[in-house]
Amino acid sequence: MHRARGGLSMPLPKQVPVAVAERPLQPLRTRRLYVVDGIRLVAALMVVLHHYAGTRRLNEPGNAIWSRPVSEIMPSVFHVAAYGWIGVEIFFVISGFVICMSCWGRTPRQFFVSRVIRLYPAYWFAVLFTTAVLVAVPGVWERLPVREVLLNLTMLQAGSDVPNVDMVYWTLWSELRFYLLFLVVVAMGLTYRRVIVFCCVWGAVAMLAPVSGFPLLELLANPDGAWYFIAGLALYLMHRFGQDLLLWGILAMAWLMGQLELGERVEYEGVSSWRGAVLIFTAFMLVMVAVSLGRLDGIRWKWLVTAGCLTYPLYLTHYMAGTSLISRLHGTMDARLLLGLLIAGFLMLSWAVHRVVERPVARVLKRGLDTSFARVRGRQVP
Hints:
- By secondary structure, this protein is mainly alpha-helical.
- Helix content is 68%, strand content 2%.
- The chain is built from 15 helices and two strands.
- The chain has a two-stranded antiparallel ribbon with strand order 1-2.
- The radius of gyration is 21 Å and the shape is globular.
- The two termini are 35 Å apart.
């Protein structure tokens, strides 16, 4: 669920001949994709509302967060929030779109640096912030031992079978595996043909991996998330090069294959229906098609830039810290007021994290990594 460093941007309308698509292109003159910023914030708010008022755990009698079923406290809010988990699938599609867009014409080194400075500053803050809140407000979630908290700072804890400091970090493991696979295409040089081949090969492997009997293959193929990332890649190709039957076919296959994962998620969440989930996801996909075809280019609201900046810190910090606070405050005010204040508070925190943590730390990391890679290449840094 992550934006390109320096903002979501789109090439100015331009038809690219098929012959040009066969070779790597330099980045085009760009302008910001405001709509995608807004969609990302909506997806994040969907996930936040789900975690605060729509999960199966929250609807159990005597739960540790609201003390009684949330469907009894806020029935209308619960029925809406029950579908908020779909925000994660939306994140994955947008990630495929944005990563392909931001990597076009870049080297593997630039791709690596852009991902590090985008992902780690806010994540490091979130790990330490959530740990501090769980220490200050015990009783809802179990705090991890210090050694496991430290391993979480690597973002690679899932590979060592170590629990996440916050359960929402599971999506980062899917993102990292996508980046690892896509790095191969970036190293070869992004072209229309190579991205198409990547989508087809990855999709085929993702279909076969669960029945192959090879855990490593399933780990790399990431069948639970592959088709959402593939959908995002196809949408970006459609946006950059124009629509054709092949891209529509890949997008249709991604939509069809995604229904399996949606069904599994519905069973796991236990609070929503498959039909409702498919309807919401399909509506989102239609909006993304409209974005890809340039139908929403006229939306250029400046506040959406800020909205896009809040999404990642909000996602990382809201869940376990927020539900711990609900457990202490739910009896002091109206439940809906508490939800509104809490979401507003975490939005303000996210803005502060973006300005005080992400920006300065990213600049320091970029300078350090650029210097390091220059030394590896044996060059002097200007």
